Structures are given as C-alpha cells and as structure tokens.
Amino acid sequence: xxxxxxxxxxxxxxxxxxxxxxxxxxxxxxxxxxxxxxxxxxxxxxxxxxxxxxxxxxxxxxxxxxxxxxxxxxxxxxxxxxxxxxxxxxxxxxxxxxxxxxxxxxxxxxxxxxxxxxxxxxxxxxxxxxxxxxxxxxxxxxxxxxxxxxxxxxxxxxxxxxxxxxxxxxxxxxxxxxxxxxxxxxxxxxxxxxxxxxxxxxxxxxxxxxxxxxxxxxxxxxxxxxxxxxxxxxxxxxxxxxxxxxxxxxxxxxxxxxxxxxxxxxxxxxxxxxxxxxxxxxxx
Length: 284
Ligand code: MF3
Ligand code: CO
Ligand code: CO
Hints:
alpha+beta, Creatine Amidinohydrolase, three-stranded antiparallel β-sheet, 19 strands, globular, binds cobalt (II) ion
C-alpha cells in the first residue's frame, strides 16, 4: 500500500532528535529571507497554536444553515478574547482594496480570498475553506482547512482529501539543504496523479513579523530547483487544487478568486519552520 503523506511526515518527525532546539542565530537576512531566532520561533509557536485552535473552535459551527458572516464574527470574537488580532481585517497589499473581514471563507468554486457575507448560507454538499491569520506579539500564524458541509459528492470529498495529502507531502520534503522546488514537485505529482490541477498564481510565502514576505513557495515545480532551505526559515505551504482547470477569475470585489470553469477548488495551509533536522509544523 502507498504510504500516506501523514505517515511519511510522522516518521520524519519521530526521527527528530530531542536536542534539535539548538539556539539559532539571531534574526537576520540572507538574500532577503529572514531566519528566525529561537526566541522568535517561540512566538511563532504561540501564535501558530492560537491559529490552529481557532480553526478547531470554528469546526463544529460549520453546518448547513450557518452564514459565512456568522463564522467570521465568531472568529473575530474568539481571536480578540485570546489577546490576538486578525491580520486579514483591513489587509491592503498594493493594488487591492482593504480586505473587509477577519477570515477568508472560500466556498466550492472559490479558490481563495472569499469574503464572508450574511447572504451566503452554507448548505449540505458544500465544501468551504476557512483561512485564519491571527497576530500575537507581532507574529503571524497562517493556517487554513477545507471543511465538508453535510456529505459532498464523491469527487468533492476526494478533492479535499487529496489536497490535504498534497500539503502534507509538500511539508514532508522540508529539511535543511532541500530545495523549494522539492515541495512543489511532491505536491504537483500527487495532485496530477489523482487527476486534479494545481493553482499556479497563488503560492505559499514567508511569514513571521510580516504577513507575506520572501520566499515564495510554489505548489508545482521540479525537484532540485530553486532556493536551498536553511534552518530558521519560516513559510507557509498552502496548495490549492482544482477539479478542472487551474485558470481563475477575480470577481468585482477585487479579492474573490474563482475557478474559470466554475468547478470545485480546495485548499489546506500550515505555517512551518525549517529546523536543523527537518521541519516543524507551527500551526498544528
Ligand atoms: N491567509 C491568506 C494566505 O494564506 C491571505 C489572506 S489575505 C486576505 O496567505 F486579505 F484575503 F485576507
Ligand atoms: Co492563509
Ligand atoms: Co498564507
């Protein structure tokens, strides 16, 4: 039987020696990429845990009949109650209007950056990605998961399962000396073997004090190519897989990204750190 990505990752995590939390160098930059110090990694662990707990907290609310706005409002309340803020609310990179909500809710054919709304009521058979990014002590924890509402179609369930597996397989490639292309290759191989396409235009990213920074982490590519990974790098792995073509359109709100063919899209995301012996998922 084929090993699951989770199994591969678990075996890798078991191989980590207990003394691997060697002090890393202070935060500094080589070719624009920040390496985080141990002290900063502890902050990333704390905000990463908050991000993971927020998704866990929202999970039971994801039921037919709830509006995506209600999910947003509870996420905002819970985030503030835990001493954090949402990086997404008001986020305005160049060329975008400020994002109006605290989380992204991307339903069915929405690839990413869906905006919660009172009018949007989840129904049985939907799939919905919830993407959260709390900020605590100045550091960002970025994670997302696609939830099943009721019992979606077999192809929808398969897309969601394969997407999660892709994320884990990508993460399992990470260790000092590996290349950024190894991550994308592992994801693309598994996605395409199952007949799904990998979105090209939205990628993982460095994350820490800044929400989006270098390096960019494509979810497709070739092994042995691209940036060499080093301990202390922190970035996201967040593949988006489509049922049909990876081509997309952006709606008039200038945020919502949808599939061009209106077929389904799913996404999973973790924030990870490269450690001296491999990888640590900060948003578990
Ligand atoms: N959290 C998303 C990511 O994974 C970014 C959302 S930006 C927003 O990178 F403005 F749409 F919220
Ligand atoms: Co995210
Ligand atoms: Co991200």
